[in-house]
Predict the structure.
Amino acid sequence: MRSTELPVPVEDTVHALRRLAPGARLHRPRTPELRVVAGALRNCAPAELARTRPEPVVQVVLAAQLRALDRAMTGFFDTGVPEAARLVRAARFGRVRPGRPLLDRLATEPGLRTAALAWADALGHRILAGELRGVTEAPAEEDGRLAAELAVAALLPRAEAGTGGREVLLRRPDEGSAQGAPPGAGEGGRSGSPREPGGAPAGPGGSAFLHVRSVRVTDDGFRVDVAADPPVELLRDGDGLTLRALWWTGLGRVADDLGYEYLLLAKDPAGTGTVRHWCHPCPAPGARVLRLESAGYRGERLRLDPASAGTSAEVLVKLELTVRLGA
């Protein structure tokens, strides 16, 4: 179950929260359980939450699964399992007063409770299924990660809409944009993180296919536009053709030369080859360099034959772009 849409893995967002640049405007989680989980993430990894904070994890996950159940009962949100149709029928034909709390309905309507339990089992909602059976399930590691995602999502501000802002990207006079090189590029365009052995920041070169087009500062943060032009090959494969392509998944981490990090609130490829990233807060006073770490690539292979299926895989590549900021 995933009730959040974080643009990067929760571990990366937690890491950024611990080194967050000054001026951030975080939200206060609405429930005590979410606040406990959010506080625990200051010193605890998401994978350890289920072991170190089992009670708030169970409460947070149960609340999320009850919300999912409530949505599924309307019939407007398809969950992809046959048990959903039975759940909708039980919810519609139950004799209840409008607006009655869901837990009250589940406690007093055996048909709805049975349908909800079958639905929860079909989707693997262990915490909810245990609640409906009257037993307390111990949270698993994946429950801790989900609780962390929900707590982090409750902290993050919304990405700003609009296209305004002040351009601060300091362009090179020779290139006109900051660039990064593809995995395996030669000298002058090497991949890797400069903090890792053997890694170096990607530099200019004819084989580069990541280009930072814009860094615009707004009232609550900044936007980074990166144009991606990864390689696409069309190869003859026996009697047919095979298409091989890499798709860039956007940035995974944003830091500066002062040691601060920034939250990635959202990213949008917009279908134009340019991926826009909304970051928070504004660049720290005195910061002159942004280090933009790639999240990775998705590789796809498709044989151009109606009877053939394609394959895809996520490829993690440590690639870092370095851009300088002007006034």
Observations:
- The longest strand covers residues 240-248.
- Residues 54-74 form the longest helix (21 residues).
- The CA atoms of residues 250 and 295 lie 6 Å apart.
- The mean pLDDT is 81.
